[in-house]
Amino acid sequence: MKPLHQIIRKPLITEKSNLQKEIGNTVAFEVALTANKVEIRRAVEKAFNVKVKDVRTMVVAGKQKRFGRNFGKRSNVKKAYITLAEGNIDFFGV
């Protein structure tokens, strides 16, 4: 298994993810493009000591952007929405 920091890149802290966290006990992470649902589940359970109920993933295509007179493309990003069975993940420790 890959190290945890290579599977879970960073938590997604947005208005939508905070609302999902309060209502449905769902947390969002940006994960590696090569990570599958089983690896993501094990990494979250090991890193945060919680029980994972469900993992949903999606790949967001990178936007095409203009750099001067040239065009380029941003990298694709994989998101994981993780529903927790029990426990809570507190990112700020307040």
Topology of helices and strands:
Elements: H1 4-7, E1 8-11, H2 15-24, E2 26-31, H3 37-48, E3 51-60, E4 64-67, E5 70-73, E6 77-86
Antiparallel strand pairs: 1-2, 2-6, 3-6, 4-5
Distance between the termini: 32 Å
The structural domain count equals: 1
Strand order of the largest sheet: 1-2-6-3
Helical residue percent band: 25-40%
CATH superfamily descriptor = RRM (RNA recognition motif) domain
Net shape: globular
As a percent range, the share of strand residues is 35-45%
What is the tally of beta strands? 6
Q: At the first level of CATH, what is the class?
A: Alpha Beta
Largest sheet: 4 strands, antiparallel
Specify Rg, calculated over alpha carbons. 15 Å
Number of distinct helices: 3
CATH architecture: 2-Layer Sandwich
Low-confidence stretches: none
Order of helices and strands: HEHEHEEEE
Keywords:
94 residues, alpha+beta, Alpha-Beta Plaits, 6 strands, globular
Task: Give a short overview.
By secondary structure, this protein is α+β, with helices and mostly antiparallel strands. Helices cover 28% and strands 40% of the residues.
Describe this entry's structure for a reader.
- The chain has a single domain, classed as RRM (RNA recognition motif) domain (Alpha-Beta Plaits).
- The protein has a 4-stranded antiparallel β-sheet. Strands 4-5 form a two-stranded antiparallel sheet.
- The longest helix has 12 residues, at 37-48.
- It has 94 residues and is of the alpha+beta class.
- The protein has 3 helices and 6 strands, in the order H-E-H-E-H-E-E-E-E.
